[in-house]
């Protein structure tokens, strides 16, 4: 269906593009912002909002495809959505989330799939979950010239091992392991770390222990930045709302109301009106 085009009111110069070195340089200077996006239109609006990074998260399995967890999404599906987001993004750094079993099997598999995110998905970086168990993969991917964002704490691809979506690092032994893993990931070459669902005190310890930015999601205010799922932020996903989410709008309800008004106007003959119709034959 054709629609009238409107000019882009937020033109972006090529030198305004957020880069990996720029993200790393922000630590200690300013707070970083990151949101998810999974399609072209959403990416355009999120990018215009001025966030530093857009994550094409494997959370799309749940909020876009209706799966119960993130394990079912495939590389091909992730690349499909990453390409769409990249086409809609002018300024933010696009990070592709490596799905379950796309990097765990072998180092060579990890490098190849990470490369596909840049070559086919047009992302500028990849994210993968895990600590000591993925250090070899991180080192090899970085050695191949591909920026890597780490992910510690609640790692959704490991929910079977973790026993569900639960807060991590709640005792000193677990907290120390998170700190050690964070240091190891930074030494392996990660440019930033996502810290999910861990006590704020532990996130502060990690943030102070590593020279790279930490991006929190349910990890308190001491992190160098924050990330949320866009569908949670604007109220589009109604199956559940994590405790750590602040909902800034209720677009789902507004969408439902708009659809209902449309249906009522079509049924009553109000729409389309003369202003929505073409003229008579000459």
TrEMBL record:
GO terms for biological process: methylation; pantothenate biosynthetic process. Binds 1 Mg(2+) ion per subunit. The lineage of its organism: Bacteria, Pseudomonadati, Thermodesulfobacteriota, Syntrophobacteria, Syntrophobacterales. Belongs to the PanB family. It is found in: Cytoplasm. It comes from Desulfosoma caldarium. 3-methyl-2-oxobutanoate binds at residues 58-59, 97, 127. Pathway: Cofactor biosynthesis; (R)-pantothenate biosynthesis; (R)-pantoate from 3-methyl-2-oxobutanoate: step 1/2. The active site is at residue 196. One of its GO terms (molecular function) is 3-methyl-2-oxobutanoate hydroxymethyltransferase activity. This is 3-methyl-2-oxobutanoate hydroxymethyltransferase. Its main location: cytoplasm. Keywords: Cytoplasm, Magnesium, Metal-binding, Methyltransferase, Pantothenate biosynthesis, Transferase. It comes from the Bacteria. Mg(2+) binds at residues 58, 97, 129. PANTHER family: 3-METHYL-2-OXOBUTANOATE HYDROXYMETHYLTRANSFERASE.
């Amino acid at each position: 269906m054709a629609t009238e085009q409107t000019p882009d009111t937020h033109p972006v110069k090529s030198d305004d593009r957020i880069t990996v070195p720029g993200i790393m340089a922000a630590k200690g200077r300013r707070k970083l912002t990151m949101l998810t996006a999974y399609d072209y239109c959403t990416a355009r609006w999120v990018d215009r909002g001025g966030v530093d990074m857009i994550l094409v998260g494997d959370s799309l399995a749940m909020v876009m495809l209706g799966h119960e967890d993130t394990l079912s999404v495939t590389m091909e599906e992730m690349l499909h959505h990453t390409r769409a987001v990249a086409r809609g993004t002018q300024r933010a750094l696009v990070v592709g989330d490596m799905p379950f079993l796309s990097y765990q099997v072998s180092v060579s598999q990890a490098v190849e799939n990470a490369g596909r995110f840049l070559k086919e998905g047009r992302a500028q970086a990849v994210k993968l979950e895990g600590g000591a168990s993925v250090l070899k993969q991180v080192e090899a991917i970085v050695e191949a010239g591909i920026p890597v964002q780490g992910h510690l704490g609640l790692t959704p691809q490991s929910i079977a091992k973790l026993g569900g979506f639960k807060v991590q690092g709640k005792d000193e032994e677990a907290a120390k392991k998170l700190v050690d893993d964070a240091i190891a990931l930074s030494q392996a070459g990660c440019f930033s770390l996502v810290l999910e669902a861990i006590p704020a005190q532990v996130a502060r310890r990690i943030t102070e222990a590593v020279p790279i930015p930490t991006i929190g999601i349910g990890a308190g205010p001491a992190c160098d930045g924050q990330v949320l799922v866009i569908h949670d932020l604007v109220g589009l996903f109604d199956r559940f709302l994590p405790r750590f989410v602040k909902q800034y709008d209720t677009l789902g309800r507004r969408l439902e109301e708009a659809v209902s008004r449309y249906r009522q106007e079509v049924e009553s003959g109000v729409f389309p009106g003369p202003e929505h119709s073409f003229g008579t034959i000459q």
